[in-house]
Write a structure and sequence with these properties.
6-stranded mixed β-sheet, 6-stranded antiparallel β-sheet, 23% strand
Length: 277
Amino acid sequence: MGVDFGLKRVGLAVCDANRILATPLPVYKTTSMRDTIDRVAAVANDRGACGIVIGLPLNLDGTESEASGRVRAFARNLERVTGLPTELIDERLTTVEADELLTEAGVKRKTERDKLIDSMSAAVILQSFLEKDKTESKIMAEEQNIAELIDDEVITLYDDDNNPVDFNEEAVVEYEGDFYALLTPVKPMEGLAEDEALIFKIIEEDEETDAFEPVTDERTLDAVFNEYLKCVADAECDCCGGECDCDHDCDGKCDHDGECDRDGCGEKCGCEHHKHD
């Protein structure tokens, strides 16, 4: 549910179960913060809301406005009363967008737009959240596809003499629109170090079968392997989540700018994941 909070009028909006479209509800006049909380909580309960998105009024430069504190207090109390998660979302220019939508919908008289503007603003706030949520979900799905580390996945390929060779699939990496598999042999292979992987381009033959084409181009090999290293670093390090390699033997930790946090050191630590130095 979306909320456009005001001291005199409160706009509300709800979305469908699939979180696709925000729909405004009738505006209601309020007499106090307590009254607003009770009314919004009742609507949220009646509509079966699973969360509440509230517009946060900010100045045009992004700083907190005088009304920001009231909205934050309202959100805290509403969350306490309803038990539902609340999220604040920047509502700068929301009223302008809502007014344009009403004009496009044929509501031309200012008096009529004034009656609907708060609920339309709530719908814009909620729709913005829905779009942001869909975008973040899409990004997460794409990141998962970029490098999917797979445990205990064994792939059988055949050498030039048609002999089967089993490989562990260490990772799948996306590079320039194609997918590549990093494979290590289950059994030691002549000419291949124990910690060395072979890189194959994955070619989809049909819905259930993939072909693995060896990559021989040095530029592609380097690019795919570097992409793999970056994905591993992002998964394991998170800048950096662990000890950094410190070339001056003080065992410091990376604090995002590379400065060693050990007392008296004052040197730079090199983070082996993100190369802070």
